[in-house]
From TrEMBL:
Record domain Restriction endonuclease type I HsdR N-terminal: where: 54-111
Top-level taxon of origin: Bacteria
GO molecular function: ATP binding; DNA binding; type I site-specific deoxyribonuclease activity
This protein's name: Restriction endonuclease type I HsdR N-terminal domain-containing protein
Pfam families from the UniProt entry: HSDR_N (PF04313)
InterPro entries: Restrct_endonuc_type1_HsdR_N (IPR007409)
Source taxonomy: Bacteria, Pseudomonadati, Pseudomonadota, Betaproteobacteria, Burkholderiales
Coiled coil: none
Region (Disordered): 232-251
A GO biological-process term: DNA restriction-modification system
Length: 383
């Protein structure tokens, strides 16, 4: 009888209630599957029952070479395995065993005790041999427990690869709220452009970046960090989802002053423009403020334009300052004619920016000019 037939028979026995205690699970399920996986299940030097360490006993130690444990199996009565991870981890840590398996016959939990995280995060895979497809049960049991794979080290490496895959996915999942909140807070240019273009396609009029940014800040929501979740398993993923991820809690985003837009503390506070070394430079609007800052820095230092334009990163899909207007919007040449102006110095500057982006550009310019933003140069870009 092959392992597929053994699994089918075990499933039928579980459903019929034939494995009523821990001993029946050990004899009728665990040893039967180990035998199908190539282990000499009744050779106590290879499958060591009641393995003793420091006065404690683990149900089975899988040994390779003979007498040297490479994996521990702790067996519980069906439905009674919750909370047994701590005991199993203590066994594995004490003996330096790389893999630990907790099972009640129906659920098989594969752990790497030496990795990082809590018990759940160090679980490589959770397999329910009743609910899961027989083919997947065979694949996972052979991936982690096949005797030849254990003996060659392939099984332990496969478990580590799967752990890293799950860990990476978990980190990405946890970082998504942070990324979304930054997009909202910073008035991401690409998002503003997408919304602006869609409005234009629907009504024929294109809103300014500031109008779109204000709308998004009023309507979009920030999200709180997502609680850790289990990842749904696939043929190459390593952990089965026990339940769907909960809906993240949400709170309305509050209106706030842009991060890079401190206000001048002078009599000119109500005006648009910027204060530079104690002198206020009035401007018509935020774009005119940016134009004047660029002109001032270029006039003060002829190398400023080249150094700013040479920064490796401006916007995600655009340049803020360039010798040629076609370089400002490489992905959107249609914006060049309407959204660029030529400075007194001959350089070209893009104008399709929200106030928040303008404040960020001025902060970048101050860094290049070695001017302390918000101290030596303070902007007032209007509401």
């Amino acid at each position: 009888m092959g392992i597929e037939q053994d699994i089918q028979a075990i499933r039928a026995g579980i459903k019929a209630g034939r494995f009523s205690n821990e001993a029946s699970v050990s004899q009728g399920i665990v040893l039967r599957l180990l035998n199908s996986l190539g282990w000499p299940a009744y050779d106590t030097d290879a499958v060591w029952p009641e393995y003793s360490l420091s006065g404690r006993r683990v149900d089975y130690a899988l040994c390779h070479p003979v007498g040297r444990p490479i994996a521990f199996i702790e067996v519980k009565q069906i439905g009674q395995s919750d909370g047994a991870e701590r005991q199993l981890f203590e066994y594995a840590f004490h003996d330096g065993v790389p893999m630990a398996i907790l099972t009640d016959g129906r659920e098989w939990n594969f752990f790497l005790p030496g990795e990082q995280g809590d018990y759940g995060e160090r679980r490589v895979y959770k397999l329910d041999i009743v609910d899961r497809d027989v083919g997947e049960c065979v694949e996972r049991l052979e991936r982690y427990l096949l005797h030849s794979a254990i003996a060659s080290g392939v099984a332990i490496q496969a478990a580590r690869d799967d752990y890293r895959s799950v860990s990476k996915d978990r980190q990405m999942h946890a970082t998504l709220p942070k990324a979304w909140n930054q997009i909202i807070d910073e008035g991401d240019e690409m998002l503003l452009e997408i919304v602006s273009d869609r409005v234009e396609s629907l009504c024929g009029f294109k809103p300014s970046p500031d109008i779109v940014a204000a709308f998004l800040k009023e309507r979009l929501v920030r999200v709180s960090p997502l609680a850790p979740r289990q990842i749904q398993s696939s043929p190459r993923m390593a952990i089965q989802s026990a339940k769907p991820a909960e809906e993240p809690s949400r709170v309305q985003i509050a209106r706030s002053t842009p991060v890079y837009a401190p206000r001048p503390s002078s009599a000119d506070q109500g005006q648009i423009g910027f204060m530079f070394h104690g002198k206020f430079h009035p401007a018509r609007n935020a774009i005119d403020t940016l134009r004047q800052v660029f002109d001032l820095f270029i006039e003060t230092d002829a190398s400023f334009g080249e150094r700013f334009a040479g920064l490796p990163k401006h916007g995600r899909t655009r340049r803020y300052l360039a010798r040629n207007p076609s370089e400002l919007y490489p992905a959107r040449p249609d914006l060049v004619s309407e959204c660029s102006i030529k400075l007194d110095s001959g350089w070209w500057m893009g104008t399709n920016h929200s106030k928040q982006t303008i404040a960020q550009i001025i902060a970048m310019a101050c860094d290049v000019a070695q001017v302390t933003y918000s101290r030596d140069l303070v902007t007032s870009l209007g509401e």
